Every structure is written in C-alpha cells, then in structure tokens.
Amino acid sequence: MNLQLDLKILGWLLVGLGAVQAAPLLAALAVGEPLLPFVASATVAVVFGLSLALMAQPEGRNLRLRDGFVVVSFSWILASLFGALPYLLTDVLTPLDALFESVAGFTTTGSTVMEQIEAAPRSLLLWRSLTQWLGGMGIIVFAIAILPMLGIGGMQLFQAEMPGPAVEKLRPRVVETARRLLLVYLGFTAAAGLAYALAGMDAFEALCHALTTLSTGGFSTRSASIEGFGSGAIEWVAILFMVLGGINFALHYRLFQGQFRRVLGDTELGYFVSVLCVATFVIVWLLRGMGFEGEEALRKAAFQVVTLMTGTGYVSADFELWPPLATVVLLQLMILGGMAGSTSGGVKGLRVLLAAGVVRNTLARMLHPRLVLRVKYGDRPVPLDVLTGIWSFLTVYFAIAALAAAVVSSAGYDLVTSVSAALTAVGNVGPGFAQVGPTDTFAHFPGYVKLTLAACMMGGRLELFTLLVLFQPRFWQR
What we know:
Elements: H1 3-20, H2 22-31, H3 36-55, H4 65-83, H5 85-89, H6 95-106, H7 122-150, H8 158-161, H9 170-199, H10 203-214, H11 232-245, H12 249-256, H13 260-264, H14 267-288, H15 294-309, H16 324-336, H17 349-367, E1 376-377, E2 380-381, H18 384-410, H19 415-426, H20 447-461, H21 465-468
Antiparallel strand pairs: 1-2
Helix pairs in contact: 1-3, 1-4, 2-7, 4-6, 4-7, 6-7, 6-20, 7-9, 7-10, 9-10, 9-11, 9-12, 11-15, 14-15, 14-16, 15-16, 18-19, 18-20, 19-20
C-alpha cells in the first residue's frame, strides 16, 4: 500500500473542497451575509490539505487495491468532517448536528436536523446543496470507475461495460471516465436549473434544487420541501430529473452517443422503469379511493414513488396520511433503490435482479437436482464470486439496518420509527415513517443515535464493504 500517495491525494481533495467554498462565499458577499464562516472554513481545509499534500513523499505513482479502499473511504470521511465547519461557524448547528448534516449532504441522504431551514443564511443553504451535488458526482465516478476494481459484489459487471486497465494504470482511465460522466452530470444539472426556473422558482432556489435533484440528495431550501412551493409544474420537473438521477449514468452517456438500442435493451433499466410504473399505478389506485382525481392523483403518486425509490427524499405530500398499503409499498421502494451506477441509494436494481436469478435457479434445482444453470445478466453468465458478493452484501446490509434499528429503539422510539430510520440511513433515502416521517426532522434523536445513523449513511454510500474492510487488522499489515 502506498500510504504516502494516499495522503497526497486526500490532501489535494481537501484543497479542492476549500476552493469550492468560494461559491457560498460569493453568495454571502452578494446578499450581505457574514463572510467569516466560509473564509475560516475554506482556510482550514486548504491549509490542512496542502500540509498533507506537500508533506507526503510517495514512492512512485501506482495505486494498488488497498489504496483504492483507503482513498475512497477517507474521501467521504474527510469531506464530511471539514464540510461540517460552515454549519458550526455560522452558529446554526451544534458540532454533532453539524457533522450529521454534513454526512447527510455528502452521502446524498437528505435526512436533516435543521428545523427552520428558511431562517438559515442563504450562503449556507447553497453550501448545503453543493455538498449533495459533490457527493452525487463522486458516487457516480466511484460506482462506475472505482468499484469494479475493488471487487465489490455486482459492480464487477461494469468492467465489461466500462473496460478498465490494470490497477497500477488506474489514473488515466479514471480521469477519462470521470470527465465524460461529469459532462453528463453538469448538463443535466444545468437543464434541471433552467426547468425549475421556468416552472416558477427564483434563480437561487432553482440552482439549489438542481444541485440536490440530480444528486438524488433531497435537501431543499424550504422546511416543507417541494410541497412548500405549491406548484404542480415544479413537482413534474422534480419527477423527471429524479428519474434521470436514478438511472445508471453510463447509460446516459451511451444515449448521447446514439446507442439507443443498447440503452433501451438494458435489463436493469427495464426493471427500474417497470417497478416505478407498477408502484405508481398501485398508489394512484389508493389515492383515488381517498378522493384524489386525475392529474393530481398521478402526480402525487409518481412523486412519492420516484423520490423514495431513487433515495432523493423530497416531499410533496404527507404520505403517512395515505392507506397502510401505500406505506408498505413506499417502504419496499426505499429498500430496492435505483440503478447501479446512479446517484440513488438502496440495494440497487442490479443486485435485486441477480439475487432473484440465484433464487430462481435454486428453486429449479430443487425439482431437477442434476440441472446445471447459470445466472445471466443480458446474455453474459455472471461469475460465482459476483453472486457470492451480492448475497454477502445483502446479508450485511440488513444486519446493519437491524443493529441500527436496535440502537434507535434503545432510546425509547417505537418500532416503525426505529426500523424506518435505520433503513433510510443505510439506504441513503432521507425521510422515513412515524417520528422521522415526511414532516419531521432527525433533530429529536439523542447524540449516540445521530452518530449511529451518520455511520450508517456513510456505510451505505460506500457500499458497506468499502468501509468495513478498513476495520480488518489484516488490511493494515504489510
């Protein structure tokens, strides 16, 4: 492991994080808000980052497998720690709450401890949105360019789609891949901002919501989220770009290349669209029984289905007032998540499809023990180690959610609150049910529960194993 090179990379990442704070600094200057919080925060990040980058003396420029785990994991950890400074220095949140809000931002979870969002400085709201945009951009590159080389279950399939070189020649390929994905991400963000403005948002709110929609983050400039605008047009814009954020960004790039047949024939895309449509139909049927009609029923149903399946976490209605079956459907969508290679959270469609393939073949072999079957994705057989990795991931995913739910319940919370808080954290969704529902915040939790949920958010964003492997003593042995 080239630890000195890892430190240099992380140092420059902090320098970049400090530089990004020029945007909220300019916003503070424009609207007459205090400049000191962002000047001090940016200075701390840049000084600390430069110290790391300049002091590190790497032997060579080769990134090995363990370096990948270290750089990826500590990128999000350090970004969350230093990203909490603006919340703290503006005196809006306590240190623990500032850390929670920062983690929720960079992991694009969207859970919040801020109860009066409109009262916060506009420059801080812009920073809050930027953390999610940066986290969303990072997770795309992470999922498509980095994870295949780290061997995370299911993600190796991207190696065939986005061919990568040997690990020691990683850097040029990642830069090339990241550049292409960044162009798509920037383009969609600009389009979302324009669409929100045309739908009636002012320029500032359109920018903030564009940043948090494509990242499927869900932070809003209003305490009531999208519902606070009272606009059907804005809700439809959000639905469109949340769906785009929930789709594998490699498919977006191929679409721009004119590979229509390849994109439309993608198995996971078909699954993702099908689940969205079926769930929306069920919710519309339930809402019509409550008196909702026509376009409103379709819009409210589609919005909540999309926002929870993609893990965005925007709110356009208090879905806890809907029939119990709607709660069950929405909870399942929170678990399923969007597509692999997207900014969405949850288990991800790719894993669901491959896990279902294993179950199907197991049932078939119970009837025909000598039958030889292979799980395929498209027309390619999936290696056994990938399938093993997927089931390992699912086991750890639900085990961590169960442990987190136990921690929440130890503070005296009911079962629905405990389970949904755990699932929304590890799935990077945002709102849950009961006391963490669409009209609530996470501010009422005691400190140890907030830390537990923040750890779950970090683990969920990093596909669990990427972070857990660091806790193995053997990982740090030469």
